[in-house]
Fold:
Amino acid sequence: MRAVVYDRYGPPEVLRVEDVERPVPKEDEVLVKVHATTVNRLDVHTREANRRSGLAVSFLSRLVSGLRRPRQRILGTEFAGEVDGVGATVREFAIGDQVFGNSGLRFGAHAEFMCVRESARIAPKPAHISFEEAAAVSDGALNALWCLRGADLQKGQKMLIYGASGAIGTAGLQLAKYFGADVTAVCSTKNLELVGSLGADRVIDYTHEDFTKNGETYDFIFDAVGKHSFKRSRDSLRRGGCYLATDGFRNLILAMWTSRIGDKRVVFQIPPRYTKQDLLFIKKLIEAGRYRAVIDRRYSLEDVVEAARYVETEQKTGSVVLTVSRA
Ligand SMILES: NC(=O)c1ccc[n+]([C@@H]2O[C@H](COP(=O)([O-])OP(=O)(O)OC[C@H]3O[C@@H](n4cnc5c(N)ncnc54)[C@H](OP(=O)(O)O)[C@@H]3O)[C@@H](O)[C@H]2O)c1
Structure:
């Protein structure tokens, strides 16, 4: 089968398409013929061994994915496709079922076929959306859901989402609205319309207005793109308010510190632990018309290097899809 492989950590150019052996499902696994996948920030961070985050984080990253070279040669976490085979004990899925999901740190989705445990994050694809849309929903949604769960968001509470146009941001915005929050979304000029269309109550263009200077305060500031900071946004938090972080080693320290001291907290829960139930929850929202995929660009599997370069610009809106094989 065709797959995108890499044998050393580095820039997008370490990726190449190669013929590799098709995986064989173990008894509790489903073999998925992948129609669409994505290139996301987890793929980028892993491929680079998190070198941009400093030596300590890079070392931790290598501990997880392989000290000298990557243990798992095929990246890709999000997938949508058709069941092509099942192990002996699999009951939930049958050959021909249309499925979607997220393999997390097991990766493997940048390939024509992948194996996923039946009990892992794999679910029937919502019938009315395409494989590309189904591949594009899980990364942002699962990450955002994990962050919002840490916030214990209540109906009517005020949340500001910084970086509301990225994968986690577009997901966080839709989920926060679903949970009944009053949402102010922050993004750049080119994304105002998109973010408004996702249900934001207010949209701030950060190229014209600094939200920390307009006197408004919030119960939560969700830094969905890791470009703001607790220090800069603290005065915009109400007493008891939380800054929700998605990135940054310093936020780990601040989370520990502010859990004991002060009346405003940093919440940063890593590693994220999302479950099959979370995926089924997202599926239900999609089917109810309460959640949709945001796709920026589409590439073919062969153009993975170009796709990865684009993701690295940190300018994608929502997701970047790789089409693997036609349904
Ligand atoms: N997705 C994952 O699997 C994953 C895993 C681990 C960690 N993370 C972390 O979570 C964060 C978000 O990931 P993501 O995948 O959602 O990001 P993303 O989709 O790559 O975010 C891109 C968006 O960020 C906005 N942006 C770029 N620079 C900005 C700035 N200086 N200020 C405000 N907005 C800016 C851009 O929109 P505008 O032009 O509108 O600003 C762009 O639409 C990242 O820090 C990432 O490292 C993600």
